[in-house]
Amino acid sequence: MNHPSFYTRFARHALAGALLAALAFPLLWQHTAFSAEAAVKIPAPTVDEPASAATSETAVLAGGCFWGVQGVFQHVKGVSNAVSGYAGGAGNTAHYEKVGMGNTGHAESVQITFDPQQISYGQILQIYFSVAHDPTQRNRQGPDTGTQYRSAIFPVNDAQKSVAADYIAQLDKTGVFGQPIATTIEPGRAFYAAEPYHQDFLARNPTYGYIMVNDLPKIANLKQVFPQRYRDPPALVSVAVH
Q1: Label partner for 18 (CA 20 to 30 A): which of 115, 166, 190, 237?
Q2: Per-residue DSSP letters for 82-108?
Q3: Set 62, 65, 107, 202: catalytic member
Q4: Distance between CA atoms of 72 and 114, rounded to whole angstroms?
Q5: Would you state the pLDDT for residue 241?
Q6: CA separation for the pair 139, 64 (Å, rounded)
Q7: Please, is 217 exposed, middle or buried when counting C-beta atoms within 10 Å of its C-beta (0-12, 13-18, 19+)?
Q8: Annotation says 65 is catalytic
Q9: What distance in Å separates the CA atoms of residue 214 and residue 65, rounded to the nearest whole number?
Q10: Does residue 26 carry a pLDDT above 80?
Q11: Is pTM, for the whole model, over 0.90?
């Protein structure tokens, strides 16, 4: 399917978001049907990465539009950077207009840099599954559809791959989501940073209709479900690169 350009998407989301915000506010913060995804409280992983002396690690996760996923992890303690981008396809197609066509293999993704002394990879995944997106949705999140919006984990090593697989099996066994988890695990895929205008989008546009309806509730969920993990202000890309 043809995907609208960034500016067309921006205008469409602004109009739809403004209408929904007018109808739903203040119900937005009560996580009604107007919100893209509601939080699901889930147990921590029973299997996590082994302890190490490392102070920096990266995780690459996809869960729908990268604006919201980036925004969530920018508010997580122990995260020093979260960059929106693309993973799953080739470098020469890692551009917004091409990815938006849905045939590049890429998913809108976020590369998260975190301190494993403060938060583990398994705990990153707990937040990802619980509040950052709905892992039972296949090739869609909220109003966005297509393979570029799939739920996917791109492990950077075998340990991450093992933790992710074990955690998905654990959550499916508990039936906590009521449906099977659709998240794919796709190792060996490079990450490519998205265009500058996508970085820090939520932080720079908190009153944009799409953000208000679909993504600000995720930040509220993070603060409510994981208060010990919440940080304010966010870790911005614009700060990290300088």
Answers
A1: 237
A2: EEEEEESS-GGG-SHHHHTTT-SS-EE
A3: 65
A4: 13
A5: 58
A6: 8
A7: buried
A8: yes
A9: 10
A10: no
A11: no
